[in-house]
Every structure is written in C-alpha cells, then in structure tokens.
Specification:
Layout lengths: L1 H14 L3 H8 L21 H18 L6 E3 L2 E9 L3 E15 L5 E8 L5 E21 L8 E23 L2 E12 L2 E5 L8 H21 L1 H16 L4
Antiparallel strand pairs: 1-3, 2-3, 3-5, 4-5, 5-6, 6-7, 6-8
Helix pairs in contact: 3-5
Length: about 240
C-alpha cells in the first residue's frame, strides 16, 4: 500500500513539473522562442495620374538641383527676322538678346488626366508649366528701306507664356517608368512687355519679332532642358524599380 502511494505522489510530482520542459521533450507544447510572424505588405496598383505626378515631382526636384529653382539663364542669341514694308517690299531686322533668364520652370505639374494603354505598357499624359517668363536685354537693328528709316533700339523685354505643355508617352514595365517614347511641346496664350518703344512708328513690327524670338526660347527650354530633367526622373525610377 505504501508503495502505491509513493508511486502516485511521484506521478503527481511529474505532472506538476514545468509543462514547457515536458512539452519540449515530448513535443506536446511549442517552444518558448517561436518564429516571428511574417509581415505581409499589401501591394497597391497605381493609377496613371499617380505615376505622372511622381514623374513631375521628381523632375521639379531635378530642376531645383540644377540651380534653376528661381531662374535659368538664357544663352545670348542673335537672329534675323524677315518682314515686308511699303506695299510688300521685303526687308529684315537684326534682333539680339543678352543677359536673359527664364522663371517659372518649377511650376511643372501634371495637366488633366493621364491614361494607360490597354496592356498597361504605356502611359500617356501631359505636363504643364504655368506663368513661364523670359526676360532679357534686347537690341534691334533695322537698316531702313523705302520710307522706313534706319533704327537701332535697345531696351528690356519680358515675354510670358501662361501655360506651356509637354504631351508625352512613357514606356512602362509593371507600372515602373522606363523611357520617353514621345514628347511634344505646345504653348498657350502669351504676352510681351517691351521698353523703349514709345512713339516708334515700327514698334509693332519690332515687338512681333522680339515676341517670337523669346517665345521660341521658352519653347526650346521646355523641349530640351526640361525634357532632360523629366527623363532623368524616369531613369531614376527605373533604376530604383519604383513608380513613386
């Protein structure tokens, strides 16, 4: 009888032993150091607008890094502008600008809604920069023809474009931008302010030539310099494997 009691007490002592040790040895309980829970990140599918917004945001950052945040210098230029005077008599004037600069480039953003191609391999959209202005010192030289007298005028000019657009198509790989497939620039309404033209009989002719020349400078900047910064943004996104 005593042996039976001793056995039962021993069994009770065994049952009261730490369950973790017993469980570990018998495989009945999980180990104290469990594996960490797997973190699951929900992958979201971006919209075309989100991708183009990200391209524009990165491009503006590149514009600032280039030192064009407040303004970008314009290369001195010279051009000959043909026109007609005195009942169709052909003539021309020489127009030059110096010390020029362009402001407003960091206003670049998405314009209207962007879209995907059916197979999601291309993105089509439009970027716009607003209130972009070119300012420079100008010189106009006109040799004179017929009754129109020779002139040599100097002053300051500011040409502003309310909106300048870049319609572009970007190649995508799983929503990540790869490269520019198409990039076409067009500009909206513009205005010009020219000093030292008061009372000049040929002011409208001169202003038209100056206006055209500086407008072309703005458009060329969008076609070349800004396109480079947009492409730089796209290449960075490609290298990082992200659409953001």
């Amino acid at each position: 009888m005593m042996r039976g009691i001793t056995f039962l007490l021993g069994a009770a002592s065994l049952c009261l032993a730490r369950p973790d040790n017993l469980g570990d040895s018998l495989g009945l309980f999980p180990a104290e150091e469990s594996s960490p829970a797997l973190s699951v990140r929900a992958e979201t599918t971006p919209t075309a607008n989100q991708i183009l917004d990200a391209i524009a945001r990165r491009a503006v950052g590149n514009i600032r890094e280039a030192g064009w945040g407040s303004s970008k210098n314009v290369q001195d230029g010279y051009s000959t502008i043909p026109f007609s005077v005195d009942a169709g008599v052909p003539s021309s004037e020489q127009f030059s600008i110096t010390g020029g600069y362009i402001k407003g480039l960091t206003s670049l953003r998405r314009s209207k809604t962007a879209s995907f191609s059916k197979d999601k391999s291309k993105l089509s959209g439009t970027l716009v920069a607003e209130n972009v202005c070119a300012t420079a010192d100008y010189t106009v030289k006109f040799n004179g023809v017929g009754e129109a007298p020779a002139q040599n005028i100097k002053g300051k000019v500011t040409e502003c474009v309310d909106k300048i657009f870049a319609d572009l198509v970007v190649a995508l790989d799983n929503y990540v931008p790869q490269n520019i497939l198409s990039y076409i620039v067009r500009s909206g309404h513009d205005s010009v302010s020219v000093s030292n033209m008061g009372g000049n009989a040929m002011a409208k002719v001169h202003e038209a030539g100056i206006r055209k020349s500086l407008r072309q400078h703005i458009e060329k900047t969008m076609e070349t310099n800004i396109k480079v910064k947009v492409n730089q943004a796209i290449q960075d996104m490609k290298a990082e494997g992200t659409w953001q």
